[in-house]
Amino acid sequence: MKNQNPIHVFATWKVKEGQIENVLQLLKTVQEKSIQESGNLFYNIHQSITDVNTIVLFEGYTSEEAVTEHRNTAHFQDLVLGQIVPLLDERNIILTSPIQ
């Protein structure tokens, strides 16, 4: 049985030199669409203060199923995988569940 606790996603992206503005522009659209998903709790975008090319996403979902649904949306497939990932040097994702 899958975890029915909320899932928090921490994604760290290292953006290729010269591409940060493009990535941030695309991310604003991803954020707008993601927070409209029924299983989304929040979608926060952070930028490193020591390296402007490092983005950290902090996302919350109601369940593992909601994360899967998010990853199957058109905006994730088209914008994140199709347009943003090619502009990244590194992409690390950690799925977590809050400890109560």
Could you describe the 3D structure shown?
The two termini are 20 Å apart. The chain has helices at residues 20-34, 64-71, 74-84, and strands at residues 7-15, 40-47, 54-61, 88-96. It has 100 residues and is of the alpha+beta class. The protein has a four-stranded antiparallel beta sheet. The model has no long low-confidence stretch (mean pLDDT 96). The chain is globular.
Largest sheet: 4 strands, antiparallel
What letter string, H or E per element, gives the SSE order?
EHEEHHE
Number of helices: 3
Identify the quaternary structure here.
single chain
Based on secondary structure, the structural category is alpha+beta
Helix content percent band: 25-40%
Query: What is the topology, as strand order, of the major beta sheet?
Result: 2-3-1-4
How many DSSP-defined strands?
A: 4
Shape: globular
Mean model confidence by pLDDT:
96
Strand content: 25-35%
Radius of gyration: 13 Å
The poorly predicted ranges are none
Give the SSE layout:
Elements (H helix, E strand, L loop, with lengths): L6 E9 L4 H15 L5 E8 L6 E8 L2 H8 L2 H11 L3 E9 L4
Antiparallel strand pairs: 1-3, 1-4, 2-3
Helix pairs in contact: 1-3
Considering the chains and any ligands shown, give keywords for the structure.
single chain; 100 residues; alpha+beta; 4-stranded antiparallel β-sheet; 3 helices; 34% helix
Short description:
Helix content is 34%, strand content 34%. By secondary structure, the protein is an alpha+beta fold.
